[in-house]
Amino acid sequence: MHRWSGTSRRLFLAFGALIVLFAGASWLALSALADVRASLARTRDQAEGVRVALELASAVRDQYAHQAHTIIIGDQSHLGFYTEAERRVLDHTAEVRRHAVSDEERRHVDEIEQASTELDGIFRQRIVPAVVAGRAAEVQAEHARAQLVVTRIQDLTEDLVTAFERDIAVQQDRAEVVGRRTFRLALAALVTALGVALAVGLYIGRSVALPVARLRAGAERLAEGDLDTRIAVERDDEFGALARGFNAMTESLRQHQAQLVESEKLAGVGRLAAGVAHEINNPLGVILGYVRLLRKKAEGPLDEDLAVVEEETLRCQEIVEGLLDLARTPRIERQPVDLARVCAETVARLREAHLLDGVEVGVRGEGRARGAPAKLRQVVLNLVKNAAEAAGPGGHVAVEVSEGAGGAAVAVEDDGPGVAAEVRERLFEPFQTSKPSGTGLGLAVSRAIARAHGGDIEVGTSARGGARFVLRLPAASEVAA
Q1: Transmembrane segments in this chain: where (predicted)?
Q2: Fold exhibited by the domain 332-478
Q3: How confident is the model at residue 435 (pLDDT cuts 50, 70, 90)?
């Protein structure tokens, strides 16, 4: 049909609406899920920031404690422990900075970093030299300053933890809001989809099921042998077109049945012709024997006349053999066949018979099939011989064997004049030939052999400009042994 009928258009729109509805709902759900996952990821990140901030506060206290120990001991023996504590403070500060997202959180981290640097400067540049020099008053004064810095760091850490917790609460509230909104939208989409699906189901039941039932009833009558059955065309849509197609099919079947009857009659005539050909073959053999016997004794013009008789007798015998091959169904005793070897042997035999003189023939590739080697060799011989005759002296013929998932193939190409389009349609019919001395039975017999193997022969144009014949055979796994 060149346009959409109402049925196809309405079904398309109905199912399209369902698809769009489900796609929209899925997109909303996935978007909401991505939003919730992002919120949860940020919540986890901020929770980790809280943990690191608390560890930072603890590390600062350890750092201050090692300062106090240095003052109490009165020497630099505790300086290594202090350095380790300072390193932990720096590591925790860098880690907590990775979790800071808002400007407020980053500002708190900057202030903690500055205060930590200030605390380290007070200890290394003031307290340690004063302790070593024994200046107790200076030590006490600087220790008091360090204590104020530690207190400021603790306050900043608490403020940072509060900011993290506030961000966590915001993300949790957002996730809950998105979840509730998504649930409502998904529920509304589901209810709408169920309604649309119910409407589509009712429409299909009324507009599709009934015509299908009529078609089924017509098919059952046809299966019972009623070739005159017809389905009433009541609609101008796909089902109406299907009913018209069904009616055309039954009419075609009725005509084909009549043709089959006629073909059976022709087949009977063919069997009769095969019988006659078989009977003619015997006297032809006798005639050929006597002619050859007479030629041994004849001389001059008589020998030339007998040579003509022998040549024409051989031609008649070739035609009779072709008729016999065409009339009888080839018997195929399947066995594994190396197609490359068959092609190579065939080319070698044609060379020995001087049928490839002046023609370059190459065989390449590999492939295997199941079939009768002698029959397949007959097909390849006919294809290569035809290609060599078409290419002529100085020509080229390429034989390529291949095998794939679809089966095996033997392609024969030549650089001759090719096969005209108007000739291809009747190329495989008996007695169709463009050769002066051809019988026109070779390709017909070859195709019969190929089809008996479950394959076929295709004809086309080669890349060389000549003809390309391809013998295709089914895969070995598709053929019963």
Answers
A1: 183-204
A2: Heat Shock Protein 90 (3.30.565)
A3: low
